[in-house]
Amino acid sequence: MGVVTESQFHVLAVDDSFFDRKMIERLLQKSSCQVTTVDSGSKALEFLGLRESNQSDDPNATSTSPFVCDFVQEVEINLIITDYCMPGMTGYDLLKRVKESAAFRSIPVVIMSSENIPARISRCLEEGAEEFFLKPVKLADLTKLKPHMIKTKLKKESEKQAEEVKPEIEEEESPVIEILTLHQELESEQQEPMLSNNKRKAMEEVISTGRSRPKYNDITTSV
């Protein structure tokens, strides 16, 4: 299992407040994280490559998910931290859309808010948020993020290694199949002469029996 360091983590920070974005960016950089900041939930989805399926260019396209992924994000995101109260799309809406995406649902999502409303906090945690921080976010709060990012990153690395090992196993199985097929063909070829010899032997026994049988010239058949 590989060793994960903080410098390997990339965080997507979402907040409509310029001051709060800069604040969270500085705190994350102090934690040796790479940070990408956007000012809305829609821009966060755009960065991830997510959009609503009803906006598809193909009118006949159907999808079981309300959101589709236009492309695979080349830059790996290890965590999303978003403000709750934002115009247009709230942090809760962004959380739901990320968790509804098969490609990104494993990314940990953390919600921030300046309002301490228990019902709001519970709703976000039930929807899949890893943490709910009250603003202003402190450096001590960000230490809680590290275990979530390590767990997700190690899981992705394990899945990647498993995918790399699978083709090697399939390649090793093919020579075995060829050997078994060749063995079956040799057995078939060996059985054919044996069957021919057995048939010939049986015919010789019948002929031999006919020659040794006594002849009765006085027997006639009447109708």
TrEMBL record:
Its main location: nucleus. GO terms for cellular component: nucleus. Residues 187-223 are annotated as: Disordered. Keywords: Nucleus, Phosphoprotein, Transcription, Transcription regulation, Two-component regulatory system. Residues 10-150 form the Response regulatory domain. It is found in: Nucleus. It comes from the Eukaryota. This is Response regulatory domain-containing protein.
